[in-house]
Amino acid sequence: MTIIIIITFNGEKWIKACINSLLNESNSNIYVIDCDSSDETVNILESFGKSISAYYSPTNLGFGKANNVGLRYAIENDYKYVFLVNQDTICEQGITTKLLRAHQDFPEYGILSPMHFYDVETLDSRFESYLKKSSTKTFTLLLQNRKVIPVDFVNAAFWFIPIEVIERVGGFDPLFDHYGEDIEYANRVLGIHKKIGIFLNSKVYHLRNQSSPIKQNIITWKKTHYDKNLILILNPQKGNIYNLYKLHISNIRSILSSLMRLNIKRTIGIIIAYLKTVGKLPVILKHRRLYTINKSRNSSFDRENVLFLQS
Known about the structure:
By secondary structure, the chain is an alpha/beta fold. It has 12 helices and 9 strands.
Protein backbone atom coordinates (compact mmCIF):
# COMPACT_ATOMS: atom_id res chain seq x y z
CA MET A 1 0.00 0.00 0.00
CA THR A 2 1.07 3.55 -0.76
CA ILE A 3 0.18 6.57 1.35
CA ILE A 4 -0.10 9.89 -0.46
CA ILE A 5 0.92 12.72 1.88
CA ILE A 6 -0.20 16.27 1.08
CA ILE A 7 0.70 19.30 3.20
CA THR A 8 -1.81 22.15 3.01
CA PHE A 9 -1.56 25.78 4.02
CA ASN A 10 -4.10 28.25 2.64
CA GLY A 11 -4.43 26.09 -0.45
CA GLU A 12 -8.08 26.71 -1.35
CA LYS A 13 -7.02 27.65 -4.89
CA TRP A 14 -5.59 24.20 -5.67
CA ILE A 15 -6.39 21.53 -3.09
CA LYS A 16 -9.71 20.27 -4.48
CA ALA A 17 -8.24 19.60 -7.92
CA CYS A 18 -5.12 18.11 -6.36
CA ILE A 19 -7.05 15.58 -4.27
CA ASN A 20 -9.51 14.77 -7.06
CA SER A 21 -6.59 13.82 -9.30
CA LEU A 22 -5.46 11.25 -6.71
CA LEU A 23 -8.72 9.85 -5.32
CA ASN A 24 -8.88 6.83 -7.61
CA GLU A 25 -5.28 5.68 -7.26
CA SER A 26 -5.27 1.92 -6.67
CA ASN A 27 -3.81 0.55 -3.44
CA SER A 28 -3.31 4.11 -2.18
CA ASN A 29 -4.73 6.26 0.60
CA ILE A 30 -4.57 10.03 0.97
CA TYR A 31 -3.38 11.62 4.22
CA VAL A 32 -3.48 15.42 4.46
CA ILE A 33 -1.71 17.50 7.12
CA ASP A 34 -3.14 21.01 7.30
CA CYS A 35 -0.91 23.69 8.80
CA ASP A 36 -3.50 25.96 10.42
CA SER A 37 -5.00 27.32 7.20
CA SER A 38 -7.07 30.50 7.57
CA ASP A 39 -8.89 30.29 4.23
CA GLU A 40 -11.41 27.67 3.01
CA THR A 41 -8.89 24.83 2.86
CA VAL A 42 -10.19 23.02 5.96
CA ASN A 43 -13.80 23.18 4.73
CA ILE A 44 -12.72 21.76 1.39
CA LEU A 45 -10.84 18.94 3.10
CA GLU A 46 -13.83 18.11 5.29
CA SER A 47 -16.06 17.97 2.20
CA PHE A 48 -14.17 14.85 1.08
CA GLY A 49 -15.46 12.99 4.13
CA LYS A 50 -14.01 9.52 4.60
CA SER A 51 -12.40 9.54 1.16
CA ILE A 52 -9.29 11.00 2.80
CA SER A 53 -7.69 11.10 6.25
CA ALA A 54 -6.50 14.38 7.69
CA TYR A 55 -4.57 15.84 10.59
CA TYR A 56 -5.30 19.46 11.50
CA SER A 57 -2.32 21.10 13.16
CA PRO A 58 -3.04 24.07 15.45
CA THR A 59 0.14 25.74 14.17
CA ASN A 60 2.00 26.09 10.88
CA LEU A 61 4.58 23.33 11.15
CA GLY A 62 6.32 24.11 7.89
CA PHE A 63 6.98 21.64 5.10
CA GLY A 64 9.47 19.29 6.74
CA LYS A 65 7.92 18.98 10.18
CA ALA A 66 4.43 18.60 8.71
CA ASN A 67 5.66 15.81 6.45
CA ASN A 68 7.20 14.13 9.50
CA VAL A 69 3.67 13.78 10.90
CA GLY A 70 2.74 11.91 7.74
CA LEU A 71 5.91 9.80 7.69
CA ARG A 72 5.33 8.69 11.27
CA TYR A 73 1.72 7.83 10.40
CA ALA A 74 2.92 5.83 7.38
CA ILE A 75 5.34 3.76 9.42
CA GLU A 76 2.93 3.17 12.30
CA ASN A 77 0.26 1.98 9.84
CA ASP A 78 2.57 -0.34 7.89
CA TYR A 79 2.53 1.39 4.51
CA LYS A 80 5.21 0.22 2.10
CA TYR A 81 5.60 3.41 0.07
CA VAL A 82 5.13 7.13 0.58
CA PHE A 83 4.27 9.61 -2.17
CA LEU A 84 4.83 13.23 -1.12
CA VAL A 85 2.71 15.64 -3.17
CA ASN A 86 2.51 19.44 -3.05
CA GLN A 87 -0.91 21.08 -2.71
CA ASP A 88 -0.52 23.19 -5.87
CA THR A 89 -0.34 20.19 -8.20
CA ILE A 90 -2.34 17.79 -10.36
CA CYS A 91 -1.26 14.21 -11.05
CA GLU A 92 -2.04 12.04 -14.03
CA GLN A 93 -4.23 9.01 -13.37
CA GLY A 94 -2.34 5.91 -12.25
CA ILE A 95 0.71 7.83 -11.08
CA THR A 96 1.33 5.76 -7.93
CA THR A 97 1.03 2.48 -9.83
CA LYS A 98 3.55 3.70 -12.40
CA LEU A 99 6.01 4.82 -9.73
CA LEU A 100 5.58 1.60 -7.78
CA ARG A 101 6.40 -0.49 -10.84
CA ALA A 102 9.34 1.76 -11.61
CA HIS A 103 10.77 1.18 -8.15
CA GLN A 104 10.24 -2.56 -8.44
CA ASP A 105 12.18 -2.48 -11.72
CA PHE A 106 14.85 -0.13 -10.35
CA PRO A 107 15.20 -0.82 -6.59
CA GLU A 108 18.51 1.03 -6.42
CA TYR A 109 16.55 4.32 -6.35
CA GLY A 110 15.69 5.73 -2.93
CA ILE A 111 13.66 8.60 -4.37
CA LEU A 112 11.72 8.53 -7.63
CA SER A 113 9.95 11.52 -9.12
CA PRO A 114 7.82 11.86 -12.26
CA MET A 115 8.28 14.46 -14.98
CA HIS A 116 7.15 17.86 -13.64
CA PHE A 117 5.20 19.96 -16.11
CA TYR A 118 3.61 23.39 -15.78
CA ASP A 119 1.17 22.86 -18.64
CA VAL A 120 0.67 20.26 -21.35
CA GLU A 121 3.84 21.19 -23.24
CA THR A 122 5.99 23.14 -20.77
CA LEU A 123 8.27 21.68 -18.12
CA ASP A 124 8.19 23.29 -14.69
CA SER A 125 11.01 25.83 -14.85
CA ARG A 126 12.79 24.80 -11.67
CA PHE A 127 12.41 21.12 -12.47
CA GLU A 128 14.03 21.78 -15.83
CA SER A 129 16.91 23.54 -14.08
CA TYR A 130 17.54 20.45 -11.92
CA LEU A 131 17.83 18.36 -15.07
CA LYS A 132 20.28 20.80 -16.63
CA LYS A 133 22.42 21.06 -13.48
CA SER A 134 22.65 17.33 -12.97
CA SER A 135 26.14 15.91 -13.32
CA THR A 136 24.69 12.75 -14.86
CA LYS A 137 24.43 14.22 -18.38
CA THR A 138 20.65 14.00 -18.23
CA PHE A 139 19.87 14.87 -21.81
CA THR A 140 22.32 12.29 -23.14
CA LEU A 141 20.46 9.69 -21.13
CA LEU A 142 17.14 10.97 -22.48
CA LEU A 143 18.40 10.30 -25.98
CA GLN A 144 19.24 6.75 -24.94
CA ASN A 145 15.57 6.06 -24.15
CA ARG A 146 16.20 5.37 -20.48
CA LYS A 147 13.08 4.70 -18.38
CA VAL A 148 14.64 6.22 -15.27
CA ILE A 149 17.42 8.78 -15.32
CA PRO A 150 19.57 9.53 -12.28
CA VAL A 151 19.80 13.15 -11.12
CA ASP A 152 21.69 14.90 -8.36
CA PHE A 153 18.50 16.41 -6.92
CA VAL A 154 14.81 16.97 -7.60
CA ASN A 155 12.57 19.03 -5.35
CA ALA A 156 10.11 17.27 -3.04
CA ALA A 157 6.96 18.48 -4.81
CA PHE A 158 6.61 14.84 -5.92
CA TRP A 159 8.70 12.22 -4.11
CA PHE A 160 7.99 8.49 -4.18
CA ILE A 161 9.96 6.85 -1.37
CA PRO A 162 10.02 3.25 -0.11
CA ILE A 163 9.41 2.97 3.62
CA GLU A 164 12.63 0.99 3.95
CA VAL A 165 14.54 4.13 2.93
CA ILE A 166 12.66 6.29 5.44
CA GLU A 167 13.38 3.73 8.15
CA ARG A 168 17.08 4.15 7.44
CA VAL A 169 17.41 7.93 7.05
CA GLY A 170 14.52 9.12 9.25
CA GLY A 171 12.38 12.18 8.68
CA PHE A 172 13.06 15.74 7.61
CA ASP A 173 15.40 17.64 9.90
CA PRO A 174 13.33 20.05 12.05
CA LEU A 175 16.21 22.54 12.04
CA PHE A 176 14.73 23.77 8.76
CA ASP A 177 11.61 25.94 8.70
CA HIS A 178 10.80 25.95 4.99
CA TYR A 179 13.06 25.42 1.95
CA GLY A 180 16.33 23.52 2.02
CA GLU A 181 15.02 20.53 3.97
CA ASP A 182 14.50 18.49 0.80
CA ILE A 183 18.10 19.12 -0.34
CA GLU A 184 19.41 17.98 3.04
CA TYR A 185 17.14 14.91 2.95
CA ALA A 186 18.30 14.02 -0.56
CA ASN A 187 21.92 14.19 0.65
CA ARG A 188 21.10 11.61 3.32
CA VAL A 189 19.49 9.32 0.77
CA LEU A 190 22.58 9.57 -1.41
CA GLY A 191 24.62 8.96 1.74
CA ILE A 192 23.17 5.45 2.10
CA HIS A 193 24.11 4.78 -1.54
CA LYS A 194 20.61 5.06 -2.96
CA LYS A 195 19.99 6.99 -6.16
CA ILE A 196 17.58 9.79 -6.97
CA GLY A 197 15.80 9.40 -10.27
CA ILE A 198 13.21 10.74 -12.68
CA PHE A 199 10.74 8.23 -14.11
CA LEU A 200 10.16 9.42 -17.66
CA ASN A 201 6.89 7.60 -18.37
CA SER A 202 4.88 9.69 -15.94
CA LYS A 203 3.54 13.21 -15.88
CA VAL A 204 2.46 15.60 -13.14
CA TYR A 205 1.67 19.30 -13.15
CA HIS A 206 3.09 21.86 -10.74
CA LEU A 207 0.91 24.96 -10.96
CA ARG A 208 3.17 27.38 -9.13
CA ASN A 209 4.21 30.70 -10.61
CA GLN A 210 6.97 30.02 -13.12
CA SER A 211 8.59 33.43 -12.73
CA SER A 212 8.39 34.48 -9.11
CA PRO A 213 11.18 36.96 -8.39
CA ILE A 214 11.68 37.44 -4.67
CA LYS A 215 12.46 40.92 -3.46
CA GLN A 216 15.67 40.33 -1.54
CA ASN A 217 16.23 42.07 1.77
CA ILE A 218 18.36 41.41 4.83
CA ILE A 219 15.86 38.85 6.19
CA THR A 220 15.62 36.85 2.96
CA TRP A 221 19.39 36.88 2.44
CA LYS A 222 19.86 35.72 6.03
CA LYS A 223 17.44 32.81 5.59
CA THR A 224 18.90 31.78 2.23
CA HIS A 225 22.44 31.64 3.55
CA TYR A 226 21.52 30.08 6.88
CA ASP A 227 19.79 27.23 5.04
CA LYS A 228 22.85 26.84 2.80
CA ASN A 229 25.04 26.65 5.89
CA LEU A 230 22.83 23.98 7.44
CA ILE A 231 22.87 21.89 4.24
CA LEU A 232 26.66 22.17 4.06
CA ILE A 233 27.34 21.13 7.67
CA LEU A 234 24.75 18.34 7.71
CA ASN A 235 25.94 16.73 4.46
CA PRO A 236 26.79 13.14 5.49
CA GLN A 237 28.82 12.53 2.34
CA LYS A 238 31.66 14.67 3.72
CA GLY A 239 33.48 14.63 7.06
CA ASN A 240 32.95 17.09 9.92
CA ILE A 241 36.31 18.82 9.52
CA TYR A 242 35.86 19.28 5.78
CA ASN A 243 32.31 20.64 6.18
CA LEU A 244 33.35 23.11 8.89
CA TYR A 245 36.29 24.28 6.77
CA LYS A 246 33.95 24.81 3.80
CA LEU A 247 31.49 26.66 6.05
CA HIS A 248 34.03 29.28 7.04
CA ILE A 249 35.62 29.62 3.61
CA SER A 250 32.32 29.89 1.70
CA ASN A 251 30.90 32.49 4.10
CA ILE A 252 34.04 34.62 4.06
CA ARG A 253 34.10 34.52 0.25
CA SER A 254 30.40 35.42 0.04
CA ILE A 255 30.86 38.35 2.42
CA LEU A 256 33.86 39.69 0.50
CA SER A 257 32.07 39.24 -2.83
CA SER A 258 29.03 41.17 -1.58
CA LEU A 259 31.20 43.95 -0.19
CA MET A 260 33.02 44.30 -3.50
CA ARG A 261 29.66 44.66 -5.26
CA LEU A 262 28.51 47.14 -2.59
CA ASN A 263 25.49 44.94 -1.87
CA ILE A 264 25.06 46.01 1.75
CA LYS A 265 21.79 44.16 2.41
CA ARG A 266 23.22 40.87 1.18
CA THR A 267 26.43 41.42 3.15
CA ILE A 268 24.55 42.03 6.40
CA GLY A 269 22.26 39.05 5.76
CA ILE A 270 25.21 36.71 5.18
CA ILE A 271 27.03 37.95 8.29
CA ILE A 272 23.94 37.42 10.46
CA ALA A 273 23.42 33.93 8.98
CA TYR A 274 27.09 33.09 9.58
CA LEU A 275 27.01 34.23 13.20
CA LYS A 276 23.73 32.37 13.77
CA THR A 277 25.24 29.20 12.32
CA VAL A 278 28.36 29.44 14.48
CA GLY A 279 26.20 30.04 17.57
CA LYS A 280 24.10 26.97 16.84
CA LEU A 281 26.97 24.67 15.87
CA PRO A 282 26.60 22.37 18.92
CA VAL A 283 22.94 21.73 18.05
CA ILE A 284 23.62 21.39 14.32
CA LEU A 285 26.44 18.91 14.91
CA LYS A 286 24.20 16.92 17.25
CA HIS A 287 21.63 16.63 14.48
CA ARG A 288 24.36 15.57 12.08
CA ARG A 289 25.36 12.73 14.43
CA LEU A 290 21.76 11.61 14.84
CA TYR A 291 20.92 11.70 11.15
CA THR A 292 24.05 10.09 9.74
CA ILE A 293 24.09 6.33 9.28
CA ASN A 294 27.35 5.03 10.69
CA LYS A 295 28.78 2.14 12.68
CA SER A 296 27.65 3.63 15.98
CA ARG A 297 24.03 3.92 14.87
CA ASN A 298 21.82 0.99 13.99
CA SER A 299 20.38 1.48 10.53
CA SER A 300 16.95 0.16 11.57
CA PHE A 301 14.28 2.67 12.51
CA ASP A 302 13.53 3.48 16.15
CA ARG A 303 9.97 4.73 16.64
CA GLU A 304 11.12 7.07 19.39
CA ASN A 305 14.01 8.41 17.32
CA VAL A 306 14.48 12.17 17.66
CA LEU A 307 14.51 12.40 13.87
CA PHE A 308 10.73 12.58 14.07
CA LEU A 309 10.47 15.16 16.81
CA GLN A 310 8.62 18.29 15.73
CA SER A 311 11.06 20.77 17.19
